[in-house]
């Protein structure tokens, strides 16, 4: 006898998934709840279910509301393609393209854009449950959530498709939860990709979350979670990865490409690790620890900062200048160890004009340990760049340029006077580090030809 706990959205008796998949999924969830009513049948009784979305395009006009544990919603393909490149290509060229829109198991978020409504009203998937225990083991896997378009921000000069604003969220988890998984998903053109409040043992793994205003936001507070192995890149206004009041967050093996106003932004995050990630950005403030972020390990990451090479996006930035710090640290006893940091930028693009860019800047707190960071700062080879070429070739030629570069004078570490008792070892020569040696410990990186 086939299981009743396997549902296919294209084979369900209420609603039409090609008109509104939201109505179909809500009706399936209602069916699961009507059948799984008893909390304890032979030490079981509420196994949840799987809802399958085959490859195809499914508009969502009704928000999906999830309030049951053990629900897995899965498709067969994250289907990402760049909407940013498409919308910055003349529409007359689309007729020759092999495909124009994202694919896979694709949900087209067509929720009405509400002005003045709650933020969560714009979420395709909304998860909330009160009472005990916390809702557990809801899983989203292997499908695409496409926010379709960004909207005019009222400034009058932006292409609406480049604003990264539309009030839409892919997955919004409003109440405390345990052991959720988001994996294999593709999220594109949403103002917020994944927003999670009060996470515990959350895994966000192997997703493609790009061209969203913000990609991952862990809000409220949380513990013991991981963001691993994702390809991520937010718009110039928002966060690629943001976490608030979190303990025990592991951020590892992600490839975080531009733009994002930051790659990692922590507020009050402690005892967490950021390791073995690759970060690429077009602006200062790649990693920001604000408030008090303490006892975190930032290690073995590769940071690369250059100027935006692609013409259509060159008018935009995050508003920070080069004195802000590529890594901005506020807090106590953090370890910033063995990172490689490349910055390549022509002096004419440095702000304020004539400034010496700051790489690692510690603005408050004490006891931070900054050791063995290798900073390579150069002017860029602007002659090889052609901002009018295809997005891919422009970005790749810019990324690969390592010849003909000249050394750029930078401050590798700057310890502001508000921060004391830090240890700075082998992260810059005497001339590259700004530190009060009376209240901090400092050992400079030896310079070839000069006595140690
Ligand atoms: O290179 C990674 C991703 O970047 C693209 C291509 O380039 C874009 C165009 O806006 O610029 C940024 C990256 O430098 C992106 O976020 C964006 O999306 C994806 O097409 C691509 O998947």
UniProtKB/TrEMBL annotation:
Descriptive protein name: Right-handed parallel beta-helix repeat-containing protein
Domain Periplasmic copper-binding protein NosD beta helix: 160-307
InterPro entries: Beta_helix_2 (IPR040526), NosD_dom (IPR007742)
Source organism per UniProt: Rahnella perminowiae
Cross-referenced Pfam families: Beta_helix_2, NosD
Source taxon at top rank: Bacteria
């Amino acid at each position: 006898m086939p299981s009743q706990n396997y549902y296919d959205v294209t084979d369900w008796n209420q609603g039409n998934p090609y008109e509104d998949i939201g109505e179909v999924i809500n009706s399936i969830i209602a069916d699961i709840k009507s059948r799984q009513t008893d909390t304890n049948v032979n030490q079981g009784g509420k196994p949840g279910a799987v809802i399958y979305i085959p490859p195809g395009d499914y508009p969502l006009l009704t928000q999906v509301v999830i309030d049951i544990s053990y629900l897995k919603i899965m498709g067969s393909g994250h289907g990402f393609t760049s909407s940013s490149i498409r919308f910055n290509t003349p529409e007359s060229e689309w007729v020759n393209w092999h495909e124009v829109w994202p694919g896979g198991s694709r949900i087209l978020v067509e929720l009405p854009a509400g002005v003045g409504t709650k933020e969560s009203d714009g979420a395709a998937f909304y998860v909330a449950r009160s009472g005990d225990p916390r809702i557990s083991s809801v899983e989203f896997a292997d499908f695409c959530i496409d926010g379709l378009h960004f909207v005019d921000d009222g400034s009058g000069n932006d292409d609406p498709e480049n604003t990264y604003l539309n009030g839409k969220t892919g997955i919004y988890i409003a109440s405390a939860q345990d052991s959720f998984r988001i994996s294999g998903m593709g999220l594109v053109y949403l103002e917020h990709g994944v927003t999670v409040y009060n996470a515990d043992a959350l895994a966000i793994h192997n997703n493609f979350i790009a061209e969203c205003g913000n990609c991952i936001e862990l809000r409220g507070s949380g513990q013991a979670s991981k963001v691993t192995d994702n390809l991520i890149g937010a718009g110039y206004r928002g966060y690629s990865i943001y976490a608030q009041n979190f303990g025990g967050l592991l951020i590892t093996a992600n490839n975080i490409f531009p733009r994002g106003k930051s790659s990692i932004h922590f507020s009050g995050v402690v005892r967490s690790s950021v390791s073995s990630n690759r970060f690429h950005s077009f602006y200062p403030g790649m990693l920001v620890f604000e408030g008090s972020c303490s006892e975190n390990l930032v290690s073995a990451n590769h940071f690369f900062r250059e100027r935006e090479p692609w013409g259509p996006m060159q008018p935009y930035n995050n508003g920070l200048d080069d004195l802000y710090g590529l890594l901005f640290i506020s807090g106590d006893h953090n370890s910033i160890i063995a990172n490689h940091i490349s910055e390549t930028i022509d002096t004419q693009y440095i702000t304020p004009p004539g400034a010496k860019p700051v790489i690692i800047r510690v603005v408050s707190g004490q006891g931070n340990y900054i050791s063995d960071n290798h900073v390579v700062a150069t002017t860029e080879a602007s002659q090889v760049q052609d901002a009018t070429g295809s997005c891919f070739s422009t970005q790749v030629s810019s990324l690969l340029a390592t010849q003909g570069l000249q050394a750029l004078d930078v401050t590798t570490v700057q310890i502001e006077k508000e921060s004391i008792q830090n240890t700075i070892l082998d992260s810059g020569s005497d001339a590259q580090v700004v530190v009060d040696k009376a209240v901090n410990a400092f050992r400079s990186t030896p310079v070839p030809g000069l006595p140690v």
